[in-house]
Structure formats: structure tokens, C-alpha cells
Amino acid sequence: MTERGFYCGLDAALSVVGGRWKFLVLWQLAVHGPQRFGRLRRLVDGVTEKVLIGALKDLEADCIVIRKDFQELPPHVEYSLTPFGLSLAEALRPLCEWGYAHMDRIGALASQPCACDASGSTTSATQRPPSSWSREWNSS
Questions:
Q1: φ and ψ at 102, to 5 degrees?
Q2: For the chain, what percentages of helix, strand and coil (3-state, to nearest 5) are there?
Q3: Which one of 5, 72, 96, 97 is CB 3.0 to 4.6 Å from 76, fit for a cystine?
Q4: CA 114 – CA 122 distance, rounded (Å)
Q5: What's the pLDDT at 1?
Q6: Angle between helices 9-17 and 83-101 (to 10 degrees)
Q7: How far apart are the C-alpha atoms of 76 and 78, rounded to whole Å?
Q8: Does the pLDDT value for residue 30 go beyond 90?
Q9: 77 forms bridges with which residues in the sheet?
Q10: What is the pLDDT of residue 113?
Q11: How many helices (H) and strands (E) would you count in the chain?
Q12: 17 vs 13: CA distance, rounded Å
């Protein structure tokens, strides 16, 4: 474990984007650029105002998002990704691509229990990641 208590790099990354909403906020800012609060709420379908405020505060505290207050009336505030946030969005891009590639299959499996082996056939065996994955994963 590291000084902050992270087990591995994935644990550290997930501490920043853990949960559904922070990841979706991050992704919308990466795709659409700086956004006002109301526009972000519309882009992140299903999020409540309270949850979005909390997610933005958490992302700002983690230096992923920057909040720019234009000091105008009516209030004008924009949220955008920091360079640190942009690097995280780039790291998450392959996960999004995998999700798009398998969206139909994942949706179909959501209503039924499944255990699949590497070839996609069902099995009850627990799968391990490929040996090419990081040393942190293989040491567990």
C-alpha cells in the first residue's frame, strides 16, 4: 500500500472517478469542453442537482475540474477539465471504447446472471486477467 492507502494504480484512479456520476461528468467535459452547470445537468442524463453539485465539488477538490466564476449577474460559472483531468479522460478513453463495442451484450446481460470464459461461452469458473497486466494485479 502507498502512503495514501491505495492498493494499486487502479485503486488510486477509481478514488477520483468512483461512482457513476463523477465519471459521466468527467466524460461530458472531455467531449464537450467547458460547460455551465445547467448544460452539464442536461448532458448527464438522470443526475440530480444535489448529486451533480457534489460530484463537481469532489472533482474540483481532486484537481480534475476547475470552476471559473465570471463574477457576473446573473451568475455565470463554467466548469472545465484541468490538464490533470484531461490526462485522466484520455486514460479512460479505452474503457469507453470497450463499453461502446460491447453495449448490446452488456445490456442483454443486465437482466440475467452470467459467468463467461474468455471465449464468451458460459462457465462457472472465476476468471483472472491476462498475465500481461501490471505487476500490482498479478501480485494479488
A1: -115, 15
A2: 50, 10, 40
A3: 72
A4: 7
A5: 41
A6: 100
A7: 7
A8: yes
A9: 69
A10: 63
A11: 7, 3
A12: 7
